[in-house]
């Protein structure tokens, strides 16, 4: 009897939840791809990593600078892991979401210990948010898996 009462109460609750929830339709695409090298400068205190971004919104987004790319770096040095990170200093605006692939050189700062020449791992994520023509505020997200990155010195004229 108790089970039947609980079932009778649960069915209307599930129906209510199913009818009140709605999903916002996908309103664009966002993808990122990392280069395979980091140019290390200033004695390993920072470097730059090329990141390609392709972003499209259905309609014209109105989001100002609500888009950015973030990078995380890890490099093993003996028995420790050196970490670093960076992002676009001021994000990117709606002009970057026109479907054209753009490449950004993102500065990555070493945390606590400098990078060394060799290799390491890199991972990136990006987001772009905006109000689409239907009036809904939506966010697009993209992320990469960890991948190998070569750490190379900057050309002599850049150091």
What's the CATH topology label? Immunoglobulin-like
The CATH architecture is Sandwich
Biggest sheet details = 7 strands, mixed, barrel
Using the alpha-carbon principal axes, give the shape: elongated
Q: How big a fraction of the residues is strand?
A: over 45%
Total count of helical runs of at least 4 residues: 1
Q: From the helix content, strand content and strand pairing, which structural class follows?
A: mainly beta
Radius of gyration: 22 Å
The largest sheet has its strands arranged as 2-3-6-5-4-7-9
The count of domains is 1
Tally of extended strands? 9
What is the string of SSEs from the N terminus onward? HEEEEEEEEE
Q: How far is it from the N-terminal to the C-terminal residue, by CA?
A: 79 Å
The helix content, as a percent range, equals 10-25%
Residue stretches low in confidence (pLDDT < 50, at least 5 long) are: 1-24
CATH class: Mainly Beta
What would your notes on this structure say?
The protein is mainly β and 159 residues long. It has a single domain, classed as Immunoglobulin-like. The protein contains one helix and nine strands. Strands 2-3-6-5-4-7-9 form a seven-stranded mixed barrel. A hairpin with a 4-residue loop joins β2 and β3. The chain is elongated and about 55 Å long.
